Amino acid sequence: MSAKPDRFEKERLKKLDRIVELGQDPYGSRFDNHIEIAQARENAPAEPGEVGELTRVAGRIMLRRKAGKLRFYDIADYSGQIQLLFSRGDLPAEQWELMGQLDLGDLIGIDGKLKRTDTGEISVMVEKLTILCKSLAQPPEKYHGVEDVELLLRHREIDLIYTEGVRDKMLKRSAVLDSVRQTLREHRFVEVETPVLHSIAGGAAARPFTTHHNALDMELYLRIALEIHLKRLMVGGVERVYEIGRVFRNEGIDRTHNPEFTMIEVYQAYGDYGTMMDLTEAVIVNAARAVCENANDDQLTLPWEDTTIDLTPPWPRKKYADLFAEYAGCAMNDTDAVRAKAIELANSGKITKDFLTRIETTDVHPDVIVQEVFEATVEDNLVGPVFVIDYPASICPLTKRKADDPNIAERFELYIQGMEVANAYTELNDPRLQEELFRTQLEGLSEEDSMAKMDTDFIKALKVGMPPAGGLGIGIDRLVMLLTNSQTIRDVIYFPLLRPEA
Length: 502
What we know:
single chain; alpha+beta; CATH 2.40.50.140; BirA Bifunctional Protein, domain 2; 2 domains; 9-stranded mixed β-sheet; 15 helices
């Protein structure tokens, strides 16, 4: 049952009825040949008091005021805002009455001449008003900074209309994606689409969302990564391939996590993790230049909270083991010292008590403890951008080992402001070793911790022969966060997941 209209909606419904009586459609129709408001502003006369050319614009009413026989309305589209000037002496009576049925939030089309007023304000002197959509909803009372964050997130359309900067930020997200695609086109990569429904939840360490396919009577998983299918395409001869896609992880929500998010994964035959470092740097630097006003070839700095991020290439590359020793205060292969450090961190609240209980009561792989200590001691110090390279091999089951040290995997993660933005490998292409890792399920790891899920189709593909390759994943939402100086991932996702309204 729909809610009864409140007094504001009742008033707007009366105006809607009057619009119909005036022979107008309150929900409009196509409005051809109008130009963006930003373009109209550029076309305006340069001199105060000068009247310019006839123009046609459309937008939503954001402000209104009156002065004698004049009415001033401000309308906005996604490109900008402009003032409208209605003069009772210059409009037919029917048009003046039609104007009287307008409210904040209505969408209208305007034909009129551009003018720069004596005070320098660019205006359109209205000659014809066209109703394009009558809004029945009352705007937030103080839309310059609506304070009800919950309202804005649940009704992102209101946020986009009335919160300054939100729409610009989202348009920058689109510009980032355009730039990423352009960079990859320049490097001869092919964009593809792969299945969202998987029969095996593989390719990442995450808890999946499950669903059921009725016709085949089988359990399926929403994908937690793009990896496996892209590698199979590389086996098939698509040597430079990528996908930008939504992935789903049935886990918590916080400043940098949303259960549904956007990833890009890229694979290049005959490359390695060094190739991917070069590509990552190019992708992010170009994206930053696409959305940052002060970007130039010599230096690339962005605002971040009360400081700046310097993305000027080249970026440093630091070994995992060296960073661990520096910030954890012990060598990562010193099992007793690492365990003692983990207990110390758990007692101080930097590692969860659940993890402490787990390492005290079960046989947890030493490298799992190393990674937990790394996250607690090192990550916040990685202001970056910095490539952290050469991870413990046991936590990287899809990664090729270093030729001179099988305990180390050719993997990097890119950190910026303590946040992981990209993850890349030299891909493992030995089908026998891959099957062994799948089968052993990584000693000491629980199912939800492990990336090693038995995938017989993937093993069959590797047996056909996958070329040596580098693979890369970048979190698009986190990247947009950084490039737009946003402090939470929900600010750069159009519709973040929220609890149902009570």
